[in-house]
Predict the 3D structure of the following.
Amino acid sequence: MSDAPATDSTFEGLEEQSIRKALSSSPRPARPSAVSAVLTFGWRGILKIKHVPEQLIDATMTPVLFTLMFTYMYGGAISGSTSEYLTFILPGILMMSVLFTTVYSGVALNTDLTKGVVDRFRSLPIWRPAPLVGAVVGDSVRYLVAGTVVIIVGTILGYRPGGGWDGVLAALALTIVFAFALAWVFTTLGLIMRSPNAVMNTGFMALFPLTFLSNAFVPPETLPSGLEAFVEINPISFVVTANRGLMDGTTQAGDIFVVLATAVILTAVFVPLTSWLYRKK
Amino acid sequence: MTGSHELAIEAEGLVKSFGDTTAVDGVDLTVRKGAVYGMLGPNGAGKTTTIRMLATLLRPDSGTARVLGHDIVTEADAVRGVVSLTGQLASVDEDLTGRENLILIGRLMGLTRSDAKGRADDLLDAFGLAEASGRLVKNYSGGMRRRLDLSASIVVTPELMFLDEPTTGLDPRSRNQVWGIIRALAEEGTTILLCTQYLDEADQLAEGIAVIDHGKVIAEGTPSQLKASVGSGTLHVRLLQPEQRTDAAEILGRELSAVKLESDPASLSAICDDADRGAEAIAELARRGIAIAGFTLGQPSLDEVFLALTGRPAESDESNPEEVEAA
C-alpha cells in the first residue's frame, strides 16, 4: 500500500539492509562510572559554549562593566583614589562576577527540562545525578572566564596584588569552589520554578542583596549597626575576606576554612535536594 | 541477563494521576518478546504517561509492571539497562550536532571514546545523516531529527524500545522511512512498544493493538480483529453527473453493501471489506458508463474505530479527509 516512489533514492534504497547492519551485535558495554558520566555531561556543556560562544558575553561583559564602574564611580569617594579602591574592591568584584554566573546554571537546567532529551538521559543506565553534576562542572568554565576577566581588567587598570599572583590564583580557585557549591541553590530553584525567566529573576533578587550587603564595596564599620551585624554574618562577606587575604598576602586560614565549610554545607544540602527534585519530575 | 522470560512487558492495573486528573486509570498490558505492539488512542488518552511509567520516568500511583522481567519500581535501574526511549518531543539535544549527540549517548552507554565515535559514524551513514553530521540538530528537518532520534536509541541495541508517536508531524516520505526503520529493528528481534494516533500506522507495523481512551484499555486485539469489530472500510465515490447517482447506487448495492447517499448530490459511499472488491465495483461502474470524478477507499479512521468502540468520536481533532475533499 505504501510503496515509496522510485525517485526516493537518497535513503530508501539502502535503508533496510544498512540499518540491519548498523544494529550492533557486540555485547552490551559495562555501565560508565559515575565520574565518566559526569565528565561526559561536562563535555556536553562545553560543546554548547563552543557552538554558541556569544553566550559567554554576559560572563565577560558584566565583570568588565563592574570593574570599571565601581573603580571610577566610587573609588574617589570611598577611598580617596581609584588605585587604592581597586585594591580594596577587586576581591569583591571577583566574587560578585563569578557568583552572578551561577544563576545561569539554574536557568540552563530549567530550559533543559522543557526539552525531550532529558527523557532520554533519565532513561539511561547512569548514575542519576550525573546530568546535573556534569552540567555544573561544565559551567565552571563560565566561572573561570568571569573570574579571569575581572583579574585582567583589574590589572590593566593598575591593580598589583600585594600577595603575588599565586595569591590571586588561589582567590580565583576559592571563588570557583564556592560558586560550584552555590550553583546547587540555583539548580534547586531551576527545578521548582516554572520558567527560565522566573529562575533568573528570583536568583538575582536573592544574589543582589547578598552581594551588596557584604563587605565587598564598603568597610562594614561605616554602616548602621543593624546592617553591620548582617554584613558580618553574611557568608558572602567571608568569601570576600578570604579573597582579600589571599590577594593582599594577609591570609587567615580561618577565613578560608569558613568559606570551604559553607561550600560543603551548601553542597551537602542542595545536591541531594536537586537530585531528588530531578528524579521526581 | 534477563533469563528466558517470554514476555517483554507485563503490566497490571497501572494508575497515574496528576492532581485531579487521572491520566492512566488501570492499564493492563501484555506484550510478548520480539513483538511490535501498538497503543492506539487520541491525544490525552494516557499513552505517553503509560510509556513514561514503563520506561521508569514516572512512578505509578498503583499497579505493577515488569519490563523484561524487571520490576519498574524496585528494579528501575535494571530496566533502564535494557530499554531505550524515543519520546514524543525528539529526544535529542538540539544545541549539539548530530554526531555529537550520538557520541554523547555512546559514552553514556559505556562505550570508550573511540568506540563511541566509530559507532556514531556507522549510524550516521546507515540513517542517511552522514552529510548533516556536523550540523546543529536545531537546523535538521523533522524527518532527519526523527532518524537521529531513532539511531540514538540503538547506539547500543536495546532489548525493548519505546516509541512515542514516531511519525506525528512528519511528511509521508519521512513517515515511510521511519516505518522502514521500525520494521528493520523488529525483524532483528527488538521488542517495540509503539504509541500512535494513526490506525494505519498500527496496522502497518503492529501484531497487536491496545486501544486506549481516558486512561483505560477499551479494546485489544490484532489489527484485523480490531478493524473487523469496527466494520471495515468505506468506498467513497464522486460522480461527474449527479443525475447518474441512482444508477450508481444500484450497481454499488449489487457489488458491495450498505450504500449511502451523501449530502453532496454527486457523492455516495458503500461499505467495502476488501480492496479487490472495491476495485471491481469501480470497474463495474465504468463499464456501465457512469462517469466518475474521483473515489477513495479508506480504512476506518481512528474516529470510526472510536465511534464503533465507544459510540462517540475520538476527542482529538482528527479531520476526515473524505469530508474535506467533498467541500
Remarks:
- The CA atoms of residues 189 and 202 of chain A lie 8 Å apart.
